[in-house]
Amino acid sequence: MSVKETCLICFEDIDVARMLSIGTCQHKYCLPCLKHHVEINLQNGIVAQCPHKDCKCEVNVDSCKTFLSSELANVLIERIKESSIPVTEKVYCPFPRCSALMSKQEVLENTKTSFVSEGGRKCVKCKHYFCINCKVPWHYDMSCYDFQRSEMYSCVEDQLLKSFASKKLWRQCSKCNHMVELESGCYHITCRCGHQFCYTCGAEWKNKHATCSCPIWDEHFIIRP
Q: What are the residue numbers of the active site?
């Protein structure tokens, strides 16, 4: 007879060979449950921890590669890097097609032999130059002082906010333009200005009813992992 263990997520008796540990803590769960647990956390923008009660062990990337798609595995690597860099040290490439995350130390090391002037630095990934002070592609013909007082600066800031909001899946209220982030609950959003709309498509809710046919909720927003 094969040896079985009980998965403490689904409470099924599973063959030991199909049980998996995702961290150094050695707590084991069945493959489908662990896969779901890690994917849901990544969808919420966080690195999954071991689901065992009071265990703070984070998932091991190599273990997760056995059941995650290459795309999600890369997202996990990026999330782990994000959590390892202090907020004050984080630098993002301002080029939308890159948006690489770097630490200030990485940026300085990468630009030692190709320093431009003032805030000019080079992205470690795409190798394009950007301004570490203004957080925009490098403004070759202007100083940081002049650029930040130009009309271009406000336009670039708006574009960066929209790009960031798109990546984070934020939605903008069509009435007051306030940005909204759904952490949990259904897709029926009531903005602080009182305007009600669908988080999925932005369609207005009228008389407490949706005007679109989008799903009203998603399980992973209702039941938190």
A: 186
User: Which of 3.30.40.10, 1.20.1560.10, 3.40.50.410, 3.80.10.10 is the CATH number of 4-84?
Assistant: 3.30.40.10
The pLDDT of residue 1: 58
Three-state secondary structure along 13-43?
EEEHHHEEECCCCCCEEEHHHHHHHHHHHHH
The overall pTM is greater than 0.90: no
Q: What residue spans define the domains of the chain?
A: 4-84, 87-167, 169-225
pLDDT band at 139 (very low <50, low <70, confident <90, very high): confident
**The two three-digit tokens of residue 206, written as one number:** 């009228």
**Which are the contacts of 71, defined by CB distance < 8 A and separation ≥ 6?**
none
Burial 146-168 (b: 16+ CB within 10 A, else e): ebbeeeebeebeeebeeeeeeee
Query: Closest Cα to residue 144, out of 192, 202, 152, 95?
Result: 152
pLDDT score of 223 more than 50: no
DSSP bridge pairs for 168: none
